[in-house]
Hints:
The protein has 193 residues and is mainly alpha-helical. The radius of gyration is 18 Å and the shape is globular.
Amino acid sequence: xxxxxxxxxxxxxxxxxxxxxxxxxxxxxxxxxxxxxxxxxxxxxxxxxxxxxxxxxxxxxxxxxxxxxxxxxxxxxxxxxxxxxxxxxxxxxxxxxxxxxxxxxxxxxxxxxxxxxxxxxxxxxxxxxxxxxxxxxxxxxxxxxxxxxxxxxxxxxxxxxxxxxxxxxxxxxxxxxxxxxxxxxxxxxxxxx
Length: 193
């Protein structure tokens, strides 16, 4: 239960960080994003370690789904911290932000939601613990709610060109055009000297 509470509080901190960014902009609340990350990592780590302590090992499940969980985690970290300028996004919040429309953000407006849900689903499939299933469902729903808040209100206030981006890029589920744009932007990046 403690881990579920920690994960829920993490999303509260994420929302406080974002709402603060578009309203009062108190410097002390800028740490909300990192506090949320810490809580979510600690909750997930705690659930994994408690699962490993008393589980029956199903090597086949672990060999199939744990690499998948790691791949989704890699995609999530890349999407949130490397696909967009880290310093301008999370540190220098006083600069005029620009909407990222290339790479994974050409795929969908919130690709991290897909990787986040894929991570928890794969983790549950690998370790087969009910707590991980419940946490994955709860955290994914909280993440979806948080993303809807960002998409409908917060990002519209932060990014001047976000309305245009919404017209060209799907919310969550990629389509043929967005997949093509994503591949093209990665190709274009690879062709640059």
